[in-house]
Write a structure and sequence with these properties.
By secondary structure, the protein is an alpha+beta fold. The protein has eight helices and 16 strands. Strands 2-3-14-9-16-7-6-4-5 form a nine-stranded mixed beta sheet. Strands 1-13-10-15-8 form a five-stranded mixed beta sheet, with no helix packed on it. α3 packs antiparallel against α4. 37% of the residues are buried. The model has no long low-confidence stretch (mean pLDDT 94). 2-oxoglutaric acid (AKG) binds next to β7, β9, β15 and β16. 2-oxoglutaric acid binds next to β7, β9, β15 and β16. Its cofactor is Fe(2+). GO terms for molecular function: metal ion binding; tRNA binding; tRNA(Phe) (7-(3-amino-3-carboxypropyl)wyosine37-C2)-hydroxylase activity. Keywords: Dioxygenase, Iron, Metal-binding, Oxidoreductase, tRNA processing.
């Protein structure tokens, strides 16, 4: 099958705060930052070390019989394990103890103390391990939102989604393929909330998703020590090429009151956008009262107004 041509995500070396803020951040495009100091985690975070340091803390993890996790059809279950047992299972291919099958896949996206209210902060949930990890000072401390452990079995693939915060994804051990799509390709992504309905981005169902081929595919393979800047709203799909440990840091791009206050994951649409989407739902309900040809006409009328008023002339 002919897929989209790949565009490599550019790699920048010798990036410090000034270079990031001047040359990379304003472009609102993904970038791999190589060689930024992330601290002793790069040497220390072997599975054995992680198991010793994280020990008995209970973590809620995703477990699935297949490596491609799919949030739309929920082909995984949530299970709770001591961190040390989770790291053991995620770092091995076949398990002597398992929930679903002996080669099941594991994924941890760490959570806050009260997962429904508080964003994750590795300094609070993993204070000892957090000492090994330096959060790059590429944003002001009051913009900080969360820091999240991302630990995956080899082969684990995470569904395509966007987040509403800016994000630095640090790959500490293992390698990971990341495929990204621009927010300006939103019309080609078949969105369901913050997720794309195109589950298999390498072999998409083109009968169902013909427009997907029009989306420009950006790709990189993260090496240990790499940071990937994922600007807010950029779609991303990750695949662990090895057992891997990462941390990602979300921070606010908009003013603090622009975000939903009850959003521990950083994936609820900004307040103004959520309001606009609600108004759209109301507008569509109103159109439902018209005969189909009228609905079709006013639907197109609205699309044109939205396009004229909101689309940028150029791609960024
Ligand atoms: O690293 C991963 O597996 C997923 C990362 C991700 O979705 C994120 O950083 O927002």
């Amino acid at each position: 099958m002919e897929l989209q041509e790949k565009t490599d995500v550019p790699v920048f070396t010798r990036v410090n705060r000034d270079v990031f803020l001047r040359d990379i951040y304003p472009k609102r495009r993904p970038a791999v930052l190589r060689g930024v100091s992330l601290g002793p985690c790069l040497e220390k975070w072997s599975p054995d070390y992680l198991r010793e340091q994280g020990a008995e803390l209970e973590v809620k993890v995703h477990v699935s019989t297949v490596p491609a996790m799919d949030f739309l059809h929920k082909n995984f279950v949530y299970k709770t394990l001591p961190f040390s047992e989770f790291v053991k299972r995620a770092s091995e291919r076949k398990h002597s103890e398992f929930f679903l099958c002996e080669d099941e896949s594991y994924y941890l996206r760490s959570l806050g103390e009260d997962a429904r209210k508080e964003p994750a902060d590795i300094k609070k949930q993993f204070p000892v391990l957090a000492e090994d990890f330096i959060i790059p000072e590429f944003f002001d401390p009051d913009q900080f939102f969360s820091s999240v452990f991302r630990i995956s079995s080899c082969g684990l693939q995470l569904w395509t989604h966007y987040d509403v915060m800016d994000n630095l994804l640090a790959q500490v051990t293992g390698t990971k393929r990341v495929v990204l799509f621009s927010p300006q390709d939103a019309l080609h992504m078949y969105l369901s909330g913050d997720k794309s309905e195109v589950l298999d981005i390498d072999s998409p169902d083109l009968e169902k998703f013909p427009e997907f081929l029009k989306a420009q595919r950006f790709e990189c393979v993260l090496q240990p020590g790499d940071l990937l800047f994922i600007p807010a709203l950029w779609f991303h799909n990750t695949m662990a090429l090895q057992f891997g440990v990462g941390v990602n840091v979300f921070w606010r791009h908009l003013e603090a009151d622009g975000y939903d206050k009850k959003d521990p994951y950083g994936n609820k649409d900004p307040v103004c956008a959520a309001r606009a989407l609600q108004s759209l739902d109301r507008a569509l309900q109103s159109l439902d009262q018209l005969p189909p040809e009228y609905k079709d006409f006013y639907g197109r009328h609205m699309v044109q107004r939205i396009q004229k008023r909101t689309f940028l002339d150029e791609r960024y």
